[in-house]
Write a structure and sequence with these properties.
Elements: H1 11-21, E1 29-33, H2 40-52, H3 67-74, E2 80-83, H4 92-101, E3 112-116, H5 124-135, E4 141-147, H6 155-158, E5 162-165, H7 171-182, H8 186-196, H9 200-208, H10 210-221, H11 229-266, H12 276-320, H13 332-339, H14 344-362, H15 367-377
Helix pairs in contact: 1-2, 2-3, 4-5, 7-8, 8-9, 9-10, 10-12, 11-12, 11-15, 12-13, 12-14, 14-15
Length: 382
């Protein structure tokens, strides 16, 4: 199957990228952007696949069946460097390593491709390290960067890249994808697509994981039951605990495997005494794992905020009588009762508080304190 077909609701971007992949000299730097879950990294990887595809017919590139396409998708193509950080920011050392790798000549295909995800995680000093390499790369090197929003990337980087904005898929498009790819019934697909709000990652998780569906319902319905400040503090504690548990579960599944892989690469068996140099490498791995767990927790809390935003959207929909269909239709009675307790102005203020909470948890503010303040703002007006 042509790999472009995996991108849901991205006809305009696909047209732009297929034309570029067919050119003898495509642009040397690209910036892919879009909301989380719409397929930004997948679009960039598919473009990389098309650039390295061995099909003679330009219209058939990203075929998914030639050796080059299969090795790109497997992460083993020698001409593709795919960098993904699991830390909160990309370091200068990591950027310098990419600059060095960008100088290597391609060994199999026409291009040397550097795919850098989460370019928004580059501090200004890190961006400046990449600036010259992106501005004047070797003639055989192509840079692909991804970000949720172009505004989050330093303007000097942004201005040197060709923009590829990805659209948020409509619920009907997501529902069709869930029916054809995952075999969901039309009713279940429609409900899941409405709850996911264009986020395909969330849609797939809700479709395949009953615990995820139950957790989302718990998160969204929690503020509707608050009656006093102790209950609000308890609700914040429950949300933080859920995020911590999810981060811990992911860590348990990956940390030991990462440690064993590192020890094998260094030539050790579990329990062997390590040299001072190798002990330092193991400690660095452990530090990276801690940062990864923190990022998972932060991303989980951010997802909770997105779910709560759909709740407030539904509340405002009822308060102003817009007639739009509720996103959380399964909680219609509870949402209707809550909407009667507040004014539209108060709901708008709640939305601003939610945005502030999102900024706080991305910074250095204690997530627990940020969520305690948010839950308190959901209390009924006295």
């Amino acid at each position: 199957m042509n790999l472009w077909q995996q991108l849901v609701g991205q006809d305009r971007a696909i047209e732009q990228l297929t034309l570029a992949a067919a050119q003898d000299r495509p642009s040397h730097a690209w910036l892919f952007s879009g909301q989380p879950g719409v397929g930004v990294p997948q679009a960039a990887l598919t473009f990389a696949t098309a650039l390295l595809c061995q099909q003679e017919d330009p219209a058939a590139r990203a075929c998914g069946i030639c050796p080059a396409c299969q090795s790109v998708q497997a992460g083993s193509h020698p001409d593709l460097v795919h960098f993904v950080t699991e830390k909160s920011s990309i370091s200068i050392e990591e950027a310098r390593d990419l600059v060095v790798k960008a100088q290597d000549r391609p060994s199999l295909g026409r291009w040397r491709i550097i795919l850098l995800e989460d370019a928004d995680r580059m501090p200004e000093r890190t961006s400046n390290v990449l600036l010259k390499a992106i501005e004047e790369p070797p003639p055989y090197t192509i840079w692909l960067l991804t970000t949720p929003s172009p505004a989050q990337v330093l303007i000097t980087i942004r201005s040197r890249c060709r923009a590829v904005p990805l659209a948020t898929p409509r619920p009907q498009q997501v529902a069709a994808y869930l029916q054809t790819q995952l075999g969901l019934s039309p009713e279940t697909a429609d409900l899941t697509a409405r709850l996911a709000q264009g986020n395909l990652d969330v849609a797939r998780q809700l479709a395949s994981d009953p615990d995820a569906r139950q957790r989302r319902t718990q998160v969204v319905s929690l503020p509707l039951t608050l009656r006093n400040l102790p209950a609000a503090m308890d609700a914040a504690d429950r949300l933080i605990s859920i995020a911590e548990a999810q981060a811990e579960a992911d860590a348990q599944a990956r940390n030991q495997a990462d440690r064993e892989a590192l020890l094998r690469a260094l030539g050790y068996e579990e329990g062997d005494k390590l040299s001072p140099t190798h002990r330092a490498q193991v400690r660095q791995l452990e530090e990276d794992q801690k940062r990864r767990a923190k990022r998972i927790q932060t991303d989980t809390l951010d997802r909770f905020l997105s779910d709560l935003q759909t709740l407030l959207r539904d509340v405002l929909t009822l308060q102003v009588g817009s007639g739009s269909e509720l996103i959380n239709l399964h909680l219609a009675d509870q949402i209707t009762a809550y909407a009667q307790q507040k004014s539209p102005q108060q709901t708008l203020e709640l939305l601003e508080t939610l945005k502030l909470t999102r900024r706080r948890i991305q910074g250095n503010v204690s997530p627990r304190l940020a969520f305690e303040a948010l839950m308190a703002s959901f209390l009924p007006s006295s």
